[in-house]
């Protein structure tokens, strides 16, 4: 057993950048699963694309729930590796996998059984509803495995290895990209399956990625040789995983639920605005997932150095990530503001959807820098095992979007565009507050380590 990359010594900027890029690549791959479906399904009409993106809310909700095990494992493994306590690293990984696998079977069963009732929340048109139910039920089958893939990735990240998860997830994406058009439109003896084909492609890809991860982690050469999926739970380790992971999971789940409520409000204006918001969120994921890559790298870097009690490196690492996140937000702002129509034309050939989509991206462009700052600063908190501050801030200001949206559409002349302004402005506040809280935390750490 060895540390793949020791992040407690050596050039900070170089280490963070090298660690970040494969993580960003992995984030883009996970995002590309949905985008691939959206791109191909967009050629079959707005009803199909709205169905898939609406059903995707429940996949998002489930992945958010399992941030508990992902982040708990990632933080504990990284901190244990920094201390060179490999026994605790193994226990954290195996307990997180056991919790994740057990819970995923139960939750996926409930999603499959109650798919109709869940999707009724959005009051979809009959044609959209039928397609969404088919998509949700099929994709759910593979989600039992998909929720464990981030946990397995986090084991490698804790050991400073971000390349292996990237390579494994790349294989899954390639398979999904090949299967999508074949199963959606049919080829040779394969019938045209439409939205069901997109769901089957995603399901098969998730199962493949899980199988490769499992094979790699069980091999004698892995970072934790012969890792087990099922173990007897250790209460002390489980408590630490839950203490770290639950606030983040609540933050991500509430973000998803609040977004579903916003989508429900927007749906009153028709299929086009709802489809635009759903597709627009997928486009915004370009900057969101890049920032998430920086955040995950910062969490691993901070975790190892916190375990090794190297405060100066924690602080310098944050400054590097902060610069990268601001640069990323600036690029996203320019692209979204000036090239919105071109971006949306990749996902739809309906002129009304393209024009409305360009408006959505212009409004969201205002908050891109602050959104990136919020996400990356949260990574610093996660590496320290202090997850409550960023999670509460996200919960509060994302939740305020709902009453703000209702006030705007009922007491002003704005319609769905006013709702989108509420989203953008709340992101601005979150970025400023989370960064400010992290600077205060760094100051307290300085005093603690110095005295």
SS content category: mainly alpha
Alpha-carbon distance between the two ends: 34 Å
Low-confidence stretches: none
H/I helix tally: 18
Number of strands: 0
Number of domains: 1
What does this entry look like structurally?
- By secondary structure, the protein is mainly alpha-helical.
- It has helices at 12-41, 46-65, 67-83, 86-113, 115-119, 126-146, 149-158, 163-185, 195-218, 235-266, 271-307, 311-338, 340-344, 351-365, 368-384, 388-399, 401-411, 416-450.
- The protein has one domain (19-445).
- It is globular, with a radius of gyration of 21 Å.
- The two termini are 34 Å apart.
List the helices and strands and how they pair.
Layout: H1 12-41, H2 46-65, H3 67-83, H4 86-113, H5 115-119, H6 126-146, H7 149-158, H8 163-185, H9 195-218, H10 235-266, H11 271-307, H12 311-338, H13 340-344, H14 351-365, H15 368-384, H16 388-399, H17 401-411, H18 416-450
Helix pairs in contact: 1-2, 1-8, 1-9, 1-11, 2-6, 2-10, 2-11, 3-4, 3-7, 3-10, 3-11, 4-6, 6-9, 8-9, 10-16, 10-17, 11-12, 11-14, 11-15, 12-14, 12-15, 12-18, 14-18, 15-18, 16-18, 17-18
Short characterization:
The chain is mainly alpha-helical and 451 residues long. The chain has helices spanning 12-41, 46-65, 67-83, 86-113, 115-119, 126-146, 149-158, 163-185, 195-218, 235-266, 271-307, 311-338, 340-344, 351-365, 368-384, 388-399, 401-411, 416-450. Helices cover 82% and strands 0% of the residues.
């Amino acid at each position: 057993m060895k540390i793949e990359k020791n992040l407690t010594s050596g050039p900070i900027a170089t280490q963070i950048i090298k660690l970040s890029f494969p993580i960003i690549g992995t984030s883009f791959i996970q995002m590309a699963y949905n985008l691939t479906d959206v791109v191909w399904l967009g050629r079959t009409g707005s009803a199909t694309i709205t169905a898939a993106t609406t059903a995707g809310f429940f996949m998002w909700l489930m992945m958010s729930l399992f941030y508990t095990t992902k982040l708990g494992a990632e933080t504990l493994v990284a901190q244990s590796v920094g201390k060179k306590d490999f026994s605790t690293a193994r226990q954290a990984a195996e307990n997180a996998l056991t919790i994740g696998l057990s819970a995923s079977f139960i939750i996926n069963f409930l999603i499959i059984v109650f798919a109709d009732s869940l999707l009724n929340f959005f009051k979809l048109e009959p044609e959209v509803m039928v397609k969404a139910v088919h998509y949700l039920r099929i994709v759910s089958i593979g989600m039992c495995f998909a929720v464990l893939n981030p946990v397995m990735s986090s084991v490698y990240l804790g050991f400073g290895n971000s390349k292996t998860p990237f390579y494994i997830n790349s294989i899954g994406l390639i398979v999904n990209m090949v299967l999508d058009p074949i199963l959606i439109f049919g080829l040779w003896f394969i019938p045209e399956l439409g939205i069901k084909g997109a769901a089957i492609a995603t399901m098969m890809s998730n199962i493949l990625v899980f199988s490769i991860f499992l094979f790699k982690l069980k091999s004698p050469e892995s970072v934790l040789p012969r890792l087990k999926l099922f173990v007897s739970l250790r209460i002390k380790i489980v408590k630490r995983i839950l203490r770290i992971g639950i606030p983040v999971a609540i933050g991500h789940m509430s973000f998803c639920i609040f977004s579903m409520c916003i989508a429900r409000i927007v749906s009153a204006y028709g299929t086009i605005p709802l489809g635009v918001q759903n597709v627009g969120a997928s486009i915004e994921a370009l900057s969101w997932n890049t920032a998430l890559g920086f955040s995950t790298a910062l969490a691993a870097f901070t975790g190892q150095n916190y375990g090794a009690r190297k405060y100066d490196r924690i602080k310098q690492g944050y400054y590097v990530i902060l610069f990268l996140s601001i640069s990323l937000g600036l690029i996203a702002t320019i692209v979204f503001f000036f090239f919105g129509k071109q971006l949306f034309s990749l996902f739809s050939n309906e002129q009304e959807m393209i024009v409305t989509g360009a408006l959505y991206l212009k409004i969201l462009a205002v908050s891109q820098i602050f959104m990136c700052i919020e996400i990356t600063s949260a990574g610093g908190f996660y590496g320290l095992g202090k997850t409550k501050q960023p999670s509460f801030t996200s919960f509060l200001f994302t939740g305020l979007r709902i009453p703000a949206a209702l006030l705007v559409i009922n007491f002003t002349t704005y319609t769905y565009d006013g709702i989108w302004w509420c989203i953008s402005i709340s992101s601005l506040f979150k970025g400023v507050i989370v960064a400010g809280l992290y600077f205060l935390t760094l100051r307290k750490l300085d005093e603690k380590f110095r005295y």
